[in-house]
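Researcher: I'm preparing a figure for a lab meeting and need a structural model of a single chain. I don't have an experimental structure, so a prediction will have to do for now. The sequence is pasted below. Please return the structure as tokens so I can convert it later.
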Amino acid sequence: MKFLFTYYTHKPGGLCKRLYRLQNALAASGHEVVFYSLDKPPPSSLNDKVFWQRIPFFINQRKGLVFWILFSLWLPIYLCFAVFRFKPDKLIAFNPYYSSALSLSSWIFKKPITLFLRSLVFEIDRINGKPGWLRSLVNISERHGILSAETIIFMTSSMKDRVEEFLDKPILQAEFLPNEVSAIKEFKSTFKVPLQILIAGVIDDRKNIPYVLQALALLSEDDRNKIRVTIAGDGSKLKENKKISKNLNLINVDFLGWQEGIGNHLQGSDLFIHPSLHEGLSNALVEALSFGIPVLASEIPEHKDIFQNQENLFSLTSPEYLAIKLRWILNNNGLSQLGITSKEAAQNLFFDWEERAVNLLIDN
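Model: Understood. Here is the structure written out token by token.
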């Protein structure tokens, strides 16, 4: 079969990693794959069997309102030329924006679109406080992109429920492909003081890091002295979160800024905390499970899909609920039990992601 992918340019993070992994897996399975983007992916991202093509564009910038308006007008037109030239069997999008951009080609050439839905932009923009007029425009594109796809591959059932609520209609052709745990290791059950806690991800309102800082401030001084918190990541709220930490007098919290990978930090960690208000299925969380690190995660629907045991979850009603979990770990050997339940979650996510993704594309 022949598959056509498109994305605007390389971005560090899980989306592009899996975009490249799927293209490489399809090419390795003997399928023809073409990838259209503005800039060539980093060396070694794609194998030599993937046919990369540049999308011609007359400006060099890759962000800002002017860029996105002009690119959004040009991309659907150019993709029609690309589909006519390559004649793919299926069009693949990793975001409703690209499904929307491919919809004209799909309609003209009768080619089905498969959408891998990695995150819900309409939900993220709401949480991060994007202007209402901008959210309205994005929501139109999101809705059109989702409705243009013949098959939608969700990460969790909660994502499907939320999209059906957003569209006010059911999704008839849905499949599920979560992020996977790459290894099953023995989970940590003990720690030496201080308890090494890691938080990782883009630092914005959605990641909800002040909630953790407030929970730490509720601990006794003795308990705070038993903890060391490392926060890896960058984003629009980094400075604000540093200020909150300083105002709460949390001398045991370190902000590292952007990190190319968190493997080294996970190796030295005893506990991973993920306080997000909304997620698809966090790559950082899955990576923590792969390293055998017990996880505490916010009690949102997406995390309930991963963790069947309530011990891994904390309510977002009040920071005191997270503080209670931390006291349990520090003073009642709670890390041992948390390791058992985290391993159960990891076992449910242990599979060959590339193989399952390729099979989903071939079978649907």
